[in-house]
Amino acid sequence: MPGKRARRHFSQLSEFERLLIIGMKTAGSSTAGQVDRSECAVRDCWKQWTREDTHARKIGSGVTRKTTRREYRRIVRQALVDPTGTRSAIRVDVGVAIFPQTISRHLAEANLKSKCPFRVLPLTSELRQLRLQWCQARSMWKVTDWQKVVFSDESRFVLGTENNRTGVEAPW
C-alpha cells in the first residue's frame, strides 16, 4: 500500500515503540528510520522521557468533548423518540450548538443506525423486465379473470426465529 507508511506516522506510538526509542536514544543510535516513525514523533517521545522521566502517554490527552454527558443522553433520547428525525432537527430540539457530524458520532456510539425507509421496492432491471412481461401477458384479462387471482403483500413469513424476526404460527 503506497499510503500506509504516511498514515502510520499519525497513529499513537505503542508502549513497545516508546521503550525502543528510549533505549536506542540512550545507546546513541538514530531511531526514526529503524522504528518507522517520523522524526517529530521520536523527538517528542525523547523530550517527554528527558523532561518527565516517563514514557507513558499522558492521560486525558486528545480532543476535549464539546458536549456534556447530559447533552449526549438528550441527543440519544431525542433520536429514540423520533427515529426518522434529521441531525439538524435533533440539534434544534436538544438546543446544543454542535456540528451534525458530532450528533452522528454520538448516535453511532449508542449503536443507533440511521433509518431511511424505502419509497419503493428496489428492483433490479431483470425483475422489472419480468414484471413487465407478466403485466403484458395479462393486459387483456376481464374482471372475472382478475377475481380468481390472490394477491399478497410480499411479506416474508418465517416459522422459526432466525434473522432476528418474529416467527408467524401457521394455522395448519
Automatic annotation (TrEMBL):
<dbReference type="GO" id="GO:0015074">
    <property type="term" value="P:DNA integration"/>
</dbReference>
<dbReference type="InterPro" id="IPR002492">
    <property type="entry name" value="Transposase_Tc1-like"/>
</dbReference>
<dbReference type="InterPro" id="IPR036397">
    <property type="entry name" value="RNaseH_sf"/>
</dbReference>
<protein>
    <submittedName>
        <fullName>Transposable element Tc1 transposase</fullName>
    </submittedName>
</protein>
<feature type="domain" description="Transposase Tc1-like">
    <location>
        <begin position="73"/>
        <end position="137"/>
    </location>
</feature>
<dbReference type="Pfam" id="PF01498">
    <property type="entry name" value="HTH_Tnp_Tc3_2"/>
</dbReference>
<dbReference type="GO" id="GO:0003677">
    <property type="term" value="F:DNA binding"/>
</dbReference>
<dbReference type="GO" id="GO:0006313">
    <property type="term" value="P:DNA transposition"/>
</dbReference>
